[in-house]
Amino acid sequence: MNGSSISLEQYGINVNTVIRNATAPKLYEEALANEPDSSISSVGALIVSSYEKTGRSPKDKRIVEHPSIENDVWWGKINIGMDADTFLVTRGRAIDYLNTQSRIYVVDGFAGWDA
């Protein structure tokens, strides 16, 4: 499937400005125009502040529990189970948040996908 053919609207995501698969120069331009604390270092690297609590911990990962994968996942402190109803609520909250943004950045990619 071609990434540009994946519609965000089919997932309930309706944002006016969607920047897809941006090049590094485009991301620099976007950061400098839209992120107040961004700048370019003396060696050309983009500097941005991620502020507090924006990093992701391995303990933030959840996997929806399902009988078909029950014995294939190493459950524990890193691979934490989540029931399907909790996933749907969490996904709904994420979609609601994305829909409040004036622009979002999308990378069309596949993780763990067998071609």
Automatic annotation (TrEMBL):
A Pfam family reported for this protein in Swiss-Prot or TrEMBL: PEPCK_ATP
Annotated coiled-coil segments of the chain: none
GO terms for cellular component: cytosol
Statement: the UniProt record of this protein carries the keyword Lyase: yes
UniProt record, GO biological process: gluconeogenesis
Keyword Ion transport on entry: no
This protein's UniProt keywords: Decarboxylase, Gluconeogenesis, Lyase
Single annotated GO MF: phosphoenolpyruvate carboxykinase (ATP) activity
InterPro entries listed in its UniProt record: PEP_carboxykinase_ATP (IPR001272), PEP_carboxykinase_N (IPR008210)
Family matches, as PANTHER family: PHOSPHOENOLPYRUVATE CARBOXYKINASE (ATP) (PTHR30031:SF0), PHOSPHOENOLPYRUVATE CARBOXYKINASE ATP (PTHR30031)
The protein's name: Phosphoenolpyruvate carboxykinase (ATP)
Organism (species): marine metagenome
